[in-house]
UniProtKB/TrEMBL annotation:
Residues 1-21 form the signal peptide. It holds the Pfam family Plug. This is Colicin I receptor. GO terms for cellular component: cell outer membrane. The keyword Signal applies. Coiled coil: none annotated. Belongs to the TonB-dependent receptor family. PANTHER family: PTHR47234, SECRETIN_TONB SHORT N-TERMINAL DOMAIN-CONTAINING PROTEIN (PTHR47234:SF3). The lineage of its organism: Bacteria, Pseudomonadati, Pseudomonadota, Alphaproteobacteria, Sphingomonadales. Residues 63-182 form the TonB-dependent receptor plug domain. It is a multi-pass membrane protein. Residues 313-826 form the TonB-dependent receptor-like beta-barrel domain.
Length: 878
């Protein structure tokens, strides 16, 4: 089933051995006698109570027929992370989160994955209500490419009570997107106050972070509450780039005339030939840090309100909402002084056009629920959410405006709005044979809209000024800001849709032994039609400590509005070279010319089978799953050819050299196993809680669509989803992850140690390489060569598994004051380096994956590129 059985088994054996060594060590320390100070009942942890996965109230997680993880806010905050998606990686076995770099908006919207699927195939809820996604589309060469993401930074940790993660297909219960599972964020409803601050920096002196948050809850009426929480985060940039050794300035020709600089690695420092004699400024030019490669900088404000108030006899009015505002900048690829994209009168030594991103999210929910409406429990609720993304450039220019060019541009933005209203009814019927038959049904109505907004005219316009100097002086200058033109009025889009859903669920426990659950849902969308989904789940109590569980069902995902309507020009990297690329929407005039067609919903069939054990201080679960996903929505290959360039020029896109678009181009099967193990024991006079969370997953392609006829007519033979895209989707996230956490508590002391083994990841950025190019590139790197029909090769790079260790120590000065210090990645682990550009490879006409020697590491690293991070924090409760 998996190609890494031996490795996985070895790690599991080692982890379990370490896990059970703790109580043995405790006995040895006292000559075989148990350690005094803890009663056996202190080692029995309170069972996790969850509300996700059923419409019939709370239950113990291990009694659920489907796997659910429940992580408290204290557990989430035990390390140095301040972002929710990074905190979840410890306790949720199949949860991974990308650490994108040089990815535009995606730098601030990390794309988490669950059970090996993409971000958009996981549904996020807040207090059980559907959360809106971000308005932008991930178009970078990153995990989650072509998908939409949630803005987790809008939910501050100080506002959370716990997070529940349902690891199973659940569209029959919750609707679109819930193919891999559900992340349900439960907001804090406590009375009293919390205040905390944390700050840290990498051992290289960059990537500094500071977070301060506070929350306070008040009793409201008789049994109600209102709680307001707020948080401010600031993050500094980190940089792990290498020096840019390319020729920066015009070369000097034989007669003293200027010549365009070479773009080859080493051409500015004498490692490879330059174009013309080197300008004397090459010797003094500071080549370090001009194309930063690492985490971006940002400031983020977020606020959450949560409230409930009993009204009437048995009814409760509830409301919650959130607001966040993130502003950040990230670097692009450096424009050299000798390039035609540079106005040298403004930037005599070149420039890096930094992108500015502003993300604003707000949402509000209100509802009323009660226990008896003609014998039914009932709830009516409505939730509104909106996302606003605005993009700009700073330190840039529009060459066609010459010396009058602005250096800052408003590039444009996107808007997404979602409004969901639900009516839910539940009732129990006594039919004998154990507990009552629980019955639920309801209806949902949702409206969604999406808008793309043009930038300022100078960001996309043609100013009419030719290139002012250099060998191309007098020739027409390219239009638009660098690195890519802003959105024009012709690219503005305003679209929407609505859908209505009817759903029902039956649940019964038979003779306190067998629990069965059946859910069904019908949805009708105004844009693509209707779909019906079901799920059957069961849990069998084999004994008081052992349960068997399983489920089978169908799920679906409606194409997100940004996937259907988003259109923009972007810079992407192909084989280490930046390429101006057009993302074509289904409503773009270019769509029929290149074979882009309307999107269909994704359809999935999910299977899950597992077992749980819970006795005393030990709980464990093992769950195997299979997800058959058809008509998967992905961003296509990047297509280019001379004939396509002519077509683009004829349609007003003269700067664009490649196109890509969303399509239902693949079917996949994903299989995997989740393992969790939690054990509480006595150790050194304190309580040691040991947690193992492991996931092994594998994705195969069942179908890959061929080249669209419209593109084939232009001489293009690339598949609709090429090898680069296939490897990124199936192998760009770790195919295994094992986390071993030890949390020791004695009196005021708490020590938390986490070891996470991230499995290998792969990329295929170097395609169609000749034998000579392969020989010049791959020595010393872990690669697989895939032959092509023309005798050339595709190079698949594999970056090996790494173990990252985090350590945190906290001390309670009083019952209300806690200090914590720690280090993430204490052994300063970095990913393997990617195939490098060298002088030898340049002579063979080949470049590595490292952007001409500047970016040493792959953008796919699951644990980032920052190295060791040191932090300290203080927390106060009152």
């Amino acid at each position: 089933m998996f190609g890494y059985r031996v490795t996985a088994a070895s790690i599991l054996a080692l982890s379990v051995g370490c896990l059970f060594a703790a109580p043995v060590a405790a006995q040895d320390a006292t000559g075989g006698a148990p350690v005094a100070g803890l009663a056996n009942q202190d080692l029995i942890e309170d069972p996790a109570i969850v509300v996700t996965g059923s419409r019939f109230g709370a239950r113990i997680a291990v009694d659920s027929p489907t796997p659910i993880d429940s992580i408290t806010a204290d557990e989430l905050a035990s390390g140095g992370e301040t972002e929710l998606q990074n905190m979840l990686r410890v306790d949720v076995p199949s949860f991974n989160t990308a650490r994108p770099v040089a990815a535009g908006v995606a730098n601030f919207l990390r794309s988490p994955t669950l059970r090996g699927l993409s971000t958009g195939q996981t549904l996020v809820l807040v207090n059980g209500k559907r959360r809106h996604t971000n308005s932008d589309l991930n178009v970078g060469n990153q995990v989650g490419r072509g998908d939409v993401a949630y803005n987790f930074n809008a939910l501050p940790i100080v506002a959370l009570k716990r997070v529940e993660v349902l690891r199973d297909g659940a569209s029959a219960q919750y609707g679109s997107d819930a193919i891999a599972g559900i992340i349900n964020v439960i907001l804090d409803d406590s009375i009293g106050g919390d205040l905390y601050a944390t700050s840290g920096i990498t051992t290289r002196g960059d990537g500094e972070k500071f977070t301060i948050g506070a929350g306070y809850g008040l009793a409201l009426g008789d049994g109600g509450f209102v709680r307001l929480s707020g948080q401010f985060q600031t993050q500094g940039a980190s940089d792990r780039s290498r020096a840019d050794t390319r020729q920066q300035y015009f070369g000097i020709g034989p007669n003293g005339q200027p010549v365009l600089p070479s773009a080859n690695f080493g051409s500015g420092i004498g490692l490879t030939p330059s174009n013309g004699a080197l300008d004397p400024r090459e010797a003094t030019f500071d080549r370090t840090g001009i194309s930063p490669f690492g985490q971006p900088n940002y400031d983020n404000y977020s606020f959450v309100l949560n409230a409930a108030l009993p009204v009437g006899g048995d009814a409760e009015l509830f409301a919650f909402g959130a607001y966040s505002d993130l502003s950040g900048t990230n670097a692009n690829f450096f424009r050299r002084a000798g390039q035609d994209e540079t106005v040298r009168g403004i930037f005599p030594d070149g420039f890096n056009p930094f992108q500015t991103t502003n993300l604003v999210d707000y949402s509000a929910a209100i509802g009323l629920r009660g226990k008896d409406l003609a014998g039914f429990g009932w709830e009516i609720s409505t939730v509104y959410g909106t996302s606003r993304t605005d993009i700009g450039f700073t330190g840039s220019n529009n060459v066609s405006f010459g010396l009058d060019s602005p250096t800052e541009f408003d590039r444009g933005g996107t808007r997404l709005r979602q409004w969901t209203t639900n009516l839910d009814l539940t009732r129990s019927f006594e039919i004998g044979m154990g507990s009552p038959l629980n019955f639920a049904f309801g209806a949902e109505y949702r409206q969604e809209s999406f808008r793309a907004i043009a930038g300022e005219p100078a960001s996309y316009g043609f100013g009419g000024v030719p290139i002012l100097d250099g060998p191309n002086a007098g020739r027409p200058a390219s239009a638009g800001a660098q690195p890519v033109p802003g959105s024009s009025p012709e690219e503005e889009v305003d679209g929407g849709r609505n859908n209505i859903a009817l759903y029902a669920e039956l649940e019964k426990e038979w003779a306190d032994v067998l629990l069965t659950s059946l859910a069904a849902r019908y949805e009708d969308y105004s844009d693509f039609g209707s779909t019906t989904d079901f799920r059957f789940a069961a849990r069998l109590a084999v004994s008081n400590t052992v349960n068997l569980r399983g489920s089978v069902g169908s799920s679906f995902r409606a194409p997100a509005l940004p996937q259907q309507l988003f259109q923009r020009s972007e810079t992407s990297f192909t084989g280490g070279v930046p390429v101006a690329t057009r993302i074509v929407s289904t409503v773009d005039p270019l769509a029929p010319l290149i074979g882009a067609s309307p999107l269909n919903p994704e359809q999935a069939t999910t299977f899950s089978l597992g077992a749980t054990y819970n006795s005393g201080g030990l709980s464990a679960s093992v769950d195997a799953y299979q997800i058959d996903l058809n008509d998967r929505i992905v961003l296509s290959s990047q297509f280019s050819s001379p004939a396509l360039t002519q077509l683009l020029q004829a349609n007003g896109f003269g700067q664009i050299r490649a196109v890509t678009f969303e399509s239902n181009s693949v079917d996949t099967t994903t299989r995997g196993v989740d393992v969790t193990l939690r054990y509480a024991s006595e150790f050194l006079g304190g309580k040691l809680t040991s947690t193992l969370a492991a996931n092994f997953t594998d994705t195969k392609f069942d179908r890959v669509a061929g080249t669209p006829e419209a593109l084939a007519a232009l001489g293009i033979t690339t598949e609709l989803f090429d090898r680069r895209s296939q490897v990124r989707l199936a192998e760009g996230i770790p195919q295994s992850k094992v986390t071993l956490n030890f949390d020791w508590n004695r009196g005021p002391w708490r020590i938390n140690l986490t070891n996470t083994r991230y499995g290998k990841v792969s990329q295929a950025d170097l395609l169609n390489q000749t034998q000579a190019q392969v020989d010049a590139l791959v020595k010393g790197f872990n690669v697989t060569l895939v032959p092509r029909a023309n005798g050339n090769f595709d190079i698949i790079e594999t970056f090996g598994a790494k173990i990252v260790t985090d350590l945190g120590v906290s001390y309670d000065l009083t019952n209300s004051l806690t200090l914590r210090i720690g280090a993430d990645n204490i052994f300063d682990v970095f990913p393997d380096k990617q195939v490098a550009t060298t002088a030898q490879s340049q002579l063979a006409g080949a470049r590595g994956s490292d952007n001409t020697g500047i970016f040493p590491y792959s953008y796919l690293s699951p644990f980032g590129l920052s190295g060791t991070y040191l932090y300290g924090s203080i927390g106060v409760r009152f």
